[in-house]
Amino acid sequence: MRVLCLTPWFPDRPGEREGNYIFDSVMALSAAGINVKVLVTKAWRPGRSDLDLSVFPHGMILGLIRHISIPRNYLRGLSKWLYFIACYRKLLCHAKKHQIELIHAHTEGVAEVAVAVGEALNIPVVVTIHGINMSHRYIGADKQRAYFRKVLNACDRVIIVGEPLRAFFKELVGCDDHFRVVHNGFRLTGEVPERKNILTGGNVHHISVSNLHEGKGIDITLRALAQLNSEGTTGWIYTIVGDGAERPMLEKLVTELGLDNKVKFTGAVAHDRVSGLLAQADIFVLPSYREAFGIAYLEAMACGLVAVGVEGQGAAEFIRHGVNGLLVKPKNITDLAEKLRYLQENSVQANAMAAAGAETARFDFNWEHHACALVSLYSEVISEKGANSCRY
Question: Domain range holding 71?
Answer without folding.
Answer: 2-185+367-385
